[in-house]
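Note to self: user wants both folds in one dump. Writing first protein now.
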Amino acid sequence: MNSLKTIFDYDTWQEIFGSVAKNKTRTVITVIGVLWGIFIYITLSGSAKGLDNGFDREFEDMAMNSMFVWPQSTSIPHAGFKIGRSPRLTVQNVETLKQQVPEIQYIAPRNARGVRSGPPASVVYRDILRTYNIYGDYPEYSSISTKKIYKGGRFINNADIKNKRKVCVIGERTQKELFEEDESPIGKFIRIDNVYFQVIGVHKFNPGGGFETDGDIFIPFETFRNLYNTGDKVNWFVIAAYEDADVIAVEKKVKEVLKRIHKVSPDDERAFGSFNLGEVFNRITGFADGMTFLSLVVGLATIIAGVIGIGNILLISVKERTKELGVRRALGATPGEVRVQIVLESVFLTLISGIMGIVLGAFVLAIINFFTQDLSDFPYTNPTVPIPLVIGALIIMTVLGTLIGLIPAQRAVSIKPIDALREE
């Protein structure tokens, strides 16, 4: 009860402020140690979070565990075939992959005109002629790479595939170039390579969609097959694994199955190309986690060094105030009251240093955010540190300040009043 009274006692705080003011230079130098530690932690952690947020924003519409697989050319002779052969992906490969690689959640075969195969398509509306990339897709593709369709429209569905409908989803740039500003394209007909298609939607450009641009046109896969006479050929597969699956292992399995299907040597690493977006995400997440851990280690080490400095200051302060403490003890101050005052001074200095470091770190992150908020060519945005981590850091600092303050506090309590009064 007396200890609690000491904490809220005006005289206690007056003595603490008097002690701090008496040794300004020494106190400031020591406070900077703790301040610098928490500043490093806040700045590095926030910067790592900004990188993480940037990649989340860049690929927010793309499944985290997704990958692209396409055929290239063989580099090892196998089963009577020479090198340089290009395997041919087919629609039938989809079911085989689903059966033999159960970790696959979605798989979407894709064909394209203007990307990896043939020139762009000629698109005509009224008297306007433009060229755009055309994609033949299944509805499953929108489950892997979310397509944001403007109000009033939709993406390709299963009925479009089944009935081989001549419908299309155009890009926002396509709309601007072909249609009047106040003209809705939904329901209108455009001519793609001399075949009329009805516009059923306008998609917002997704920068995480591989080769895609803001002018691309999507049509049903089966319609694309008929339009360009591609048969069962597939340009590439877009695959999404389940969240708990190892994306690297899934990619390896997919290639192994494709090699068996197309009679490619198991040792041939060039027959099929791939880009594993899940692996990239894992690397980025690992890098961000590593930076956060590094900031924690460096920050904590610096904070501990600063707190030790505060303990040393208080030891010196106790020695300089030997007579004063002796007088207090002679006048009836209990060991608990003396101990609480010294510990309180330690915690006060630690917390003030920590709060200043947090404010300074937040200010630096705000500056970084100001200069990177409109950055479009680099995945970085909103560098912040979660509030629970900041509170946790303050709690750790309070505990450290209390523990380190017990050393000079015990030294103060051990002073005998009679010896202190003899001190000159």
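First done. Writing the second protein, which came from a different request thread.
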Amino acid sequence: MQYNNIPNDPAMLLSFVNLKLRDEFSSFDEMCNSLACDKDTIIKKLKMIDYEYDKKTNQFI
């Protein structure tokens, strides 16, 4: 990931990503592009704690 403020811990990452999706971005792709972060890395880390992105709700659930 290139954005320095993205948490490395999966639980903290979940909170960070869902906050950004709720407050600032209309999609996960938009967030990743804007923050210059690696989409696949985030998906893998959150899958480790059984969370997946839901387009309909625009959050990881």
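Dump finished. Worth passing along: The mean pLDDT is 93.
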